[in-house]
Amino acid sequence: MRRTILALAAALLALTTLVGCSSGGSDTLRVGTEGTYSPFSFQGPDGQLTGYDVEVARAVGAKLGKEVEFVQTPWDSIFAALESQRIDLVANQVTVNDERKARYDLSTPYTVSEGVIVTRADDTAIRTLADLRGRTTAQSATSNWAEVARGAGANVEAVEGFVQAVQLVKDGRVDATVNDNLAVGEYEKSTGDKGIKVAGTTGDTSEQAFAARKDSGLMPDVDRALAELRADGTLTQLSEKYFGSDVSGK
């Protein structure tokens, strides 16, 4: 029995040490992001990682006095990377919902957006969520947009990101994709692609935040940094830089 108690004590000490190292004890903040989701996280003309989420994460790191190390990770494995402690924070337009609130520590939201339905430009049959019933949409399998599409009765074909989803829509391999109006607007603006259109809206407004492991102890500091960045105008400046308007919320 004594050996068992000692073993449990050693395991608890190791776990406590591990959690402490990953929740703010280090001078490095490891941030997971896709790097393929413009304008939030993408490679700039110089090949360097940039975007709204990337710059907000860097600003938060500066407020915390930590060096930010980005770990590019596909969306569908980004929370696994968080749970396995490969990263400390997810910065990739994590939509706030009850399931994620229960499972992760979520920061104060720093983006507010609306969901839209994207179809081929010549498609006149899909205009609302109800029109997706029995149709096929292309989505990152674990995204909230996949949940929206499934909730509307659509079949979801899993893709790695938004650009791949758009290509499947244009190729006629799926009927639509549901995504963030900010991401869709940036895609249309940067590519001039006339092969797709916004056919309708999902009718809801969503908030996006950073995510950390549950009870990591990291989020109070992140929220304090976000409050300072909001008060000094940094969030508004970054928002206007990437979207032409303030979508950082209040």
TrEMBL record:
Keywords: Signal. Coiled coil: none annotated. GO terms for cellular component: cell envelope. Gene3D superfamilies: Periplasmic binding protein-like II (3.40.190.10). Its main location: other. Residues 1-21 form the signal peptide. It is found in: Cell envelope. Residues 28-246 form the Solute-binding protein family 3/N-terminal domain. Pfam families: SBP_bac_3 (PF00497). Belongs to the bacterial solute-binding protein 3 family. This is Amino acid ABC transporter substrate-binding protein (PAAT family). It comes from Pseudonocardia alni.
